[in-house]
Amino acid sequence: GSREVYAISSDSLKTQLRDDKALENIWSIINIKNYILDFQHQKIENIKEEFSSLLQKVVDEEKIVQILPKSLDSFVKVCFILDNISKAPLNINMWIVYVLHFFNNNITSEELYQILYSVDFLYSKTSLSKTELQSLVSFIKSVKQKIKSCKMDDGSYKTSKNLSPIEDTRNVLFSINLLEDLTQDMLFYYGNEYKDMGFKPIGKIFENVDRIEQVYEFIKI
């Protein structure tokens, strides 16, 4: 069109950033969140690498959608396989109820992300009753409390002495990302139908990370 385009030089932008402290702070937070986003995303890459061999062993696709896995480790592996072969379990709602029972306040960050990963895969493929939705809402609130309780003073998260601080922290940040996606989706799909869910929309990514600058300083070491 005929509209003029105004370009801002790099020097001019740097001057504006230097002169505008608020703008500089916003820019800093954006960079921090991008770094954390990349850091936690490595978890899904690790999962893909670890589970990729499972896909090659899938022989009977019909059988895998019928059998409810009994352990959490088996559960997340089956969900990964189903996701990658574009299948869903026959009794999805039963699977959701079952995987939620693995949650308790003593679980590790590894178990936490496995539950959230499984729920994230399953819930979008079915319709939830009010009772099922209430169970999921209660679960989300409990997860938020769990995350707050395992935050350390140095910016790390600790849930297990058997996990390295960096992996424990990566698992929790990955869980937070899944949790915030789940919260937004539930409000989008069920917010009008059930107005008493008891939590607000996610205003910004990683808003459930307390003292985010401190977390950034820990993971970039």
| Elements, N to C (H/E) | HHHHHHHHH
Separation of termini? 48 Å
Give the helix/strand class.
mainly alpha
Fraction in helix: 55-70%
- Which descriptor suits the 3D outline? globular
Question: What is the average of the pLDDT values?
Answer: 87
Low-confidence stretches: none
Largest sheet: none
Characterize the quaternary organization of these chains: single chain
Number of strands: 0
What percentage of amino acids are in beta strands? under 5%
Instruction: Evaluate the radius of gyration.
Output: 21 Å
Number of helices: 9
Number of domains: 1
Describe the structure.
There is one protein chain. With 221 residues, the chain is mainly α. It has one domain (10-219). The chain has helices spanning 10-19, 21-56, 61-64, 72-84, 92-100, 109-123, 130-149, 165-190, 212-219. The chain starts with 9 loop residues before the first helix and ends with a helix. The model has no long low-confidence stretch (mean pLDDT 87).
Write the layout of secondary structure elements.
Elements (H helix, E strand, L loop, with lengths): L9 H10 L1 H36 L4 H4 L7 H13 L7 H9 L8 H15 L6 H20 L15 H26 L21 H8 L2
Summarize the structure.
The protein is mainly α and 221 residues long. It has one domain. The chain contains nine helices and no strands.
